[in-house]
């Protein structure tokens, strides 16, 4: 089972984004039959099988074995991943892409889509995946905002210049700086 499955096909999103199927998928974190899932969810095995079949067609669930129960073959299914990540490309753009500068919200959204796609493409089976994630909060007085942004840009440009040679492993560095919004419940 993969840790994360990156979904790029609309059929996968359609199969996943139904509350009953999400419930079934959660039950299939461990191998189970439709009958076992039905008992937990208080549904009929036929109804669960219908949802499992759609999830199998979308590649979100696979049959891992089969067993005989009272002379009837019963499939045992398991989710293909522990979590699913929807590609922003599934929604697509509405209208043409506007020219954006690096200080615009649109540029930040585009950058996050690119980072999400790049991270999803990484080989999670590799024994060592040299990466780092850093997050923090910085408070800047409004009159010093431009000074802060200029210093951040200069620091990053210095890193790009210092480590931007043609030798060695290539790393992608993306930095997002945005106003912190209200906390969500």
UniProtKB/TrEMBL annotation:
SUPFAM superfamilies associated with the record: Winged helix' DNA-binding domain (SSF46785)
Pfam families documented for this protein: HTH_20 (PF12840)
Protein name: ArsR family transcriptional regulator
Organism: Amycolatopsis azurea DSM 43854
Domain of life: Bacteria
């Amino acid at each position: 089972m993969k840790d994360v499955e990156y979904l790029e096909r609309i059929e996968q999103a359609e199969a996943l984004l139904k509350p009953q199927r999400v419930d079934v998928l959660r039950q299939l974190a461990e191998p189970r039959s439709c009958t076992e899932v039905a008992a937990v969810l208080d549904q009929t095995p036929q109804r669960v099988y219908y949802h499992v079949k759609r999830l199998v067609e979308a590649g979100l669930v696979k049959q891992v074995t089969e067993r005989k129960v009272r002379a009837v073959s019963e499939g045992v299914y398991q989710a293909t991943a522990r979590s699913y990540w929807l590609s922003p490309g599934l929604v697509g753009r509405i209208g043409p892409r506007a020219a954006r500068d690096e200080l615009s919200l649109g540029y930040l959204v585009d950058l996050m889509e690119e980072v999400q796609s790049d991270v999803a493409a990484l080989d999670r089976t590799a024994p060592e995946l040299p990466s780092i994630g850093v997050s923090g909060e910085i408070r800047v007085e409004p009159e010093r905002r431009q000074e802060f942004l200029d210093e951040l840009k200069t620091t990053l440009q210095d890193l790009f210049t210092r480590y931007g040679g043609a030798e060695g492993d290539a790393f992608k560095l993306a930095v997002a700086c945005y106003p912190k919004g209200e906390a969500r419940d």
